[in-house]
Amino acid sequence: MAEEAFILFHAEGIEFQLDTEDTIRRWLQRITQLEGVKHGDINFVFMSDDDLLAKNIEFLNHDYYTDIISFQMNDDPIEGDIFISIDRVKENALNFSSSFDTELRRVLAHGVLHFIGYGDKTADEAKQMRAKEDAYLALFVEQFELPKD
Q1: Do the beta carbons of residue 69 and residue 55 sit within 8 Å?
Q2: What is the CA radius of gyration of the chain?
Q3: CA 21 → CA 29, 54, 105, 120, distances in Å?
Q4: Whole-structure pTM value
Q5: pLDDT of 99-131, one tens digit each?
Q6: How many CA atoms lie within 13 A of 18 on its CB side?
Q7: pLDDT digits (tens, 9 = 90+) for 15-26
Q8: Which bin fits 137, alpha (ψ -120 to 50), beta or left (φ > 0)?
Q9: Which domains does the chain carry?
Q10: Rounded distance between C-alpha atoms, residue 91 and residue 87, angstroms
Q11: How far apart are the first and last CA of the chain?
């Protein structure tokens, strides 16, 4: 019998509310299904700008703020750790006139899409990545979003 794979969420030194972890987990699993890949354990670690900057410097030698850093451990099934700056997500939501929840979902999908093999270094890659993110955000609204009170 195969081991169960997990999508886990952790917060390091930061407080925020992830809307319905189970719903987010099912949505991310659906993304991998639609992309035709299997996932193993994927850890999402939420932290502050400064904490993610320290990781960016330490592991990638990049001295700048970013919203996400992903460290893939395995390709088949996809597995790894995805570090996300909640501060960046909040700022991006303001800059893109989006809600925090929508921008957080975008970054979550972005990390999984990186593991699947999508890049964002060139203009063409970034365009394809954005299109995938938009499609999966629409899927979330259609199939997983909870009704508003």
Answers
A1: yes
A2: 15
A3: 12, 27, 11, 27
A4: 0.92
A5: 999 999 999 999 999 999 999 999 999 999 999
A6: 21
A7: 877 768 999 999
A8: alpha
A9: 7-144 (3.40.390.30)
A10: 6
A11: 42
